[in-house]
Design a protein that fits this description.
mainly alpha; 2 domains; 3-stranded mixed beta sheet; two-stranded antiparallel ribbon; 9 helices; elongated
Length: 245
């Protein structure tokens, strides 16, 4: 199935605001807001980016202030968020409210997770499905975006809502799928080293995915270096502990 929010992954699709969520949290295209509200603004934006379908203000408030908050404090933060995100060229705000009252972001506000999903979809079910070169390029571009776990540097005591988000569990699976697809792409042409490189990159974010372990053994076997294969097998056995391979 297509991701809920497909991004234009061509050169023409450059977003106005780009947030890196996969790894450390970085925002490109916005000034860093001043004052003590800056962490809350970042957290609110992250929540909205993970819910492209929209978030009701009450839900946003309960996520940011689990112990409760008054409506005026919530509304003041939303006003700041709207000001911070700014407007589209046509003057419409990048933070909108839909017909059901939910807060949504303009399509010009994009995260690396949106791009990651879109690249994988395009590589496997879109243009890349029938074009090997396109598939390889898109899978490679997708894996480059993976810099670690979701919001890796989130401050302690904040982002508690993230533990209830399905994407926290889905991201390692997606990264593993990308790594496996790219490994297969390289092994088809006998490029074992490139396959191993892709698998190692994926293992950085999905270290427990046994599909990656098995594929790493297969790719290492393709190097025809028995000592190296033994070393990889030993490393994986140590990593797996009592579970075994």
């Amino acid at each position: 199935a297509a991701p809920p929010f497909l991004v234009d992954v061509t050169e023409q699709g450059r977003p106005a605001v780009y947030a890196r969520l996969v790894g450390t949290y970085e925002i490109i295209g916005l000034e860093t807001p001043d004052g003590e509200r800056s962490p809350l603004l970042h957290e609110a934006l992250a929540l909205l980016l993970l819910h492209r379908e929209g978030v009701h203000p009450r839900v946003l408030a309960s996520a940011l202030w689990p112990r409760g908050v008054t409506d005026d404090v919530r509304d003041a933060l939303l006003d700041r968020l709207r000001d911070w995100l700014g407007n589209e060229p046509d003057g419409s705000p990048r933070l909108r409210t839909d017909d059901t009252g939910r807060l949504t972001l303009a399509k010009s506000v994009v995260s690396d997770l949106d791009v990651l999903r879109s690249l994988y979809h395009e590589a496997t079910q879109g243009r890349g499905a029938g074009n090997r070169a396109v598939r390889g390029r898109m899978l490679t571009d997708a894996l480059v975006l993976v810099r670690g776990p979701l919001l890796a540097d989130r401050p302690r005591g904040r982002y508690g809502w993230l533990t209830h988000e399905i994407i926290d569990a889905q991201l390692p699976l997606l990264v593993a799928d990308i790594g496996l697809a790219l490994s297969e792409f390289h092994l088809e042409k006998g490029r074992a080293e490139k396959a191993i490189e892709a698998l190692d990159a994926a293992l950085g974010s999905a270290p427990g995915d046994e599909r990656l372990w098995n594929e790493l053994l297969r790719a290492t076997h393709a190097t025809e270096d028995p000592a190296r294969l033994q070393q990889v097998a030993a490393d994986l056995m140590a990593r797996s502990g009592a579970r075994g391979l």
